[in-house]
């Protein structure tokens, strides 16, 4: 009777393990998707950082280019070629600064989104693992008690036949 009860309990525990494994399947898919999204966002962040560095280099080059002209150039007319080229450079610098600011905002937003996603997936993973650990702790305690019970029954049977369990 004890063996059949142990077999029933074993089957029940095996079913619980199977159910837990089935419960983990969607989480694995979500974890895989999160990892894929995480890598994609990292790639995009690297691309944006490269673009930002390129824009900074362009800005530096423009600033260096402005210093190449002597300061003693007479500007007789506001419509002269030098005044027009200076205005164009100033406009280009303003546009580059605006592009840099927009890229910085985008990078900050993406980094924030990435951090939020990472925290959410971490919570999901920890919650699932806590659930599995709780189930395993319960099953372990049950089987420990079941083993002790069976051991005591066997000890009593051996004593009924006049045998000492410690000698066997």
Number of domains: 1
> How many H/I helices?
2
Strand content: under 5%
Radius of gyration: 36 Å
| Largest sheet report | none
Order of helices and strands: HH
Mean pLDDT: 80
Q: Stretches where pLDDT falls below 50 for ≥5 residues?
A: 69-74
Question: What assembly state would you assign to the polypeptide chains in this entry?
Answer: single chain
Can you describe what's shown?
The protein is mostly helical. The protein has one domain. Helix 1 runs antiparallel to helix 2. The two termini are 23 Å apart. Belongs to the DRC12 family. InterPro entries: DRC12-like. It is found in: Cytoplasm, Cytoskeleton, Flagellum axoneme.
What does the secondary structure layout of this molecule look like, with pairings?
Elements: H1 2-66, H2 81-160
Helix pairs in contact: 1-2
Subunit structure: Component of the nexin-dynein regulatory complex (N-DRC).
Family: Belongs to the DRC12 family.
Subcellular location: Cytoplasm, Cytoskeleton, Flagellum axoneme
Kindly list the characteristics that best describe this protein.
flagellum; mainly alpha; cell projection; cilium; 168 residues; Dynein regulatory complex protein 12; rod-shaped; 2 helices; single chain; 0% strand
């Amino acid at each position: 009777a004890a063996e059949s009860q142990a077999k029933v309990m074993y089957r029940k525990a095996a079913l619980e393990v199977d159910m837990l494994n089935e419960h983990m399947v969607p989480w694995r898919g979500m974890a895989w998707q999160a990892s894929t999204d995480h890598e994609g966002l990292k790639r995009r962040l690297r691309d944006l950082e490269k673009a930002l560095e390129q824009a900074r280099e362009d800005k530096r080059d423009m600033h260096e280019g402005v210093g190449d002209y002597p300061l003693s150039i007479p500007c007789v007319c506001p419509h002269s070629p030098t005044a027009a080229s200076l205005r164009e450079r100033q406009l280009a610098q303003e546009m580059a600064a605006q592009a840099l600011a927009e890229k910085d905002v985008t990078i900050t937003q993406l980094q924030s989104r990435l951090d939020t996603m990472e925290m959410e997936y971490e919570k999901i993973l920890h919650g699932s693992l806590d659930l599995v650990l709780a189930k395993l702790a319960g099953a372990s305690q049950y089987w420990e008690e079941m083993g002790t019970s069976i051991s005591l029954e066997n000890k009593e049977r051996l004593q009924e036949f006049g045998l000492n369990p410690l000698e066997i």
